[in-house]
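ARCHIVE CARD
Drawer: 12
Card no.: 0347
Subject: one protein chain, sequence and derived structure
Cross-reference: see card 0346
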Amino acid sequence: MREAYVIDDIFDNINFTEQSLEVGEYENCTFRNCNFEYADFSNFKFTNCEFVDCNVSMTKLVGTAFRDVIFKDCKMFGMHFDDCNEFGMSFRFEGCALNNSVFYKTSIKRTLFKNCKLIEVDFAEADLSNSVFSNCDFSGATFERTNMEKADLRTSFNYIINPESNKLKKTKFSLSEVHGLLRQFDIEIDKNS
């Protein structure tokens, strides 16, 4: 079976739970207001594509290639980015809800997460070095043996990160959220002083 090669196309307001997106390679394509919930993106290639206001929750990502892909205002619950093709993997997230997604052991250096909900996301053993997390909610997120060197979390909140089990050299934090680095020491911090 031949795979599709689609370039410079726009997919607008399509429910892909009723009709499947053709397996193949998509380059410079825009997906707007599309529903991909529980879709199978296994072995798809997305290069310089943009997903805007889409629901891609629970999408199967085995061998999926994301290269220079932008996700804006997307619902992305329970996605396993750890199943993706790691070669050239790069993306940016703006205004997305990535709750319960998994980045376990992924190398996503220099990734931008802006205004995202990262609730209960698994970042264990991921390489997040030089990434920027701008105004992100990390409630319940997992950091274990995670490389966060030179990452910027100054405007993010609700994280609990153990400095003893993660690489944090030159990582930027705000003073108001630094208590998230001290939680494992079971000490009390007076936020009013």
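Annotation on reverse: The domain at 103-193 is CATH 2.160.20.80 (Pectate Lyase C-like). The chain has a mean pLDDT of 93.
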